[in-house]
Amino acid sequence: MSANLNNGILRTLNRTPQQSSSSSSMNESGSSVIDTIRKRMQQMKDELAKSQDELHAYQIEREREKHAREQAEGEIGGLQRRTQLVEEDLERTEERLTQATQKLEEASKAADESERGRKGLEQRTYQDDERIATLEQQLAEAQLIAEDSDRKYDEVARKLKVREGELERLDDRAQRFEEKTLELEEELKVVGNNMKSLEVSEQEAIQREESYEEQIRDLTTRLKEAEQRADLAERTMAKLQKEVDRLEGNITIIK
Fold first, then answer.
1. Which of 5, 71, 182, 205 could bridge across to 33 with cysteines, CB 3.0–4.6 Å?
2. What is the pTM of this model?
3. Are 192 and 48 in contact (CB under 8 A)?
4. What's its job (predicted)?
C-alpha cells in the first residue's frame, strides 16, 4: 500500500495543475478511507486481545471447575465407602439376629420342658417369654432399619448416577465453548489479514466496512452466547456441589 501511495505522488508531480488539483482531491478521499480502515483494524485487534484475555480467564475457570469436579468425585468415593460400611454393619446385625433367633428357639424348647416338669419354673418361663418378645421386637426393628437403609442406598446411587451424567454434559458444554472461542479467534485473524490487503476505491471500501461491521456484530453476539454458556455451566456446578453436600449429609444421618 505504501508503494502505491509513492507511485501516486510521482504521478501527481508529473500532471498539469488542473490534473493535480483533481488528483489531490481523490488522494485526500483515499487517505480518509485508509485512515478509517486502519482505525477499524485497530479496533479489531483490540477486540482480539480482549477475546484472548477472556479465553485465558475461561481456561482458568475451567481448571477450577475440573479441580472441583475431581474433589466431588473423591467425596463420592468416600460416600460409596461409607455406604459399604453401612452394608457391612447390616450384615453383622443380621448375623447377630440369626444367632438370637437360634437362641430364642433353644430357649423356647427349654421353656416347654420346664413348663411340663416343674411348676416352680413358671416365673422363669414368663421371663423367658418377655425376653422372646423383646428379641422379636428388636428383630422387626432391625429388619425395618435394613429395608430403609437399602432404599436410601438405592436412592443415593441413582442420584449419584444422575450427577455424573450432568457433570459429563457440563464438560461437553465447556469443550464446545472453548472450540467456539478458538473459531472466533481464527475469524478475527482472517479479518485482520483481509484488511491488510485492502486497496480499493472509496465505494468498495464503504461496502467492505459495512461487511466488517456485520462480522463484528456477529462475533459480538457469539461472544455473548459463549459467556451465557459459561454462566450456565457455573450455576450448574454450584447446584451439583449443593446436591453432593446434601447427599453427604443424608449418609451421615444413616450412619
1. 205
2. 0.24
3. yes
4. Tropomyosin, in association with the troponin complex, plays a central role in the calcium dependent regulation of muscle contraction.
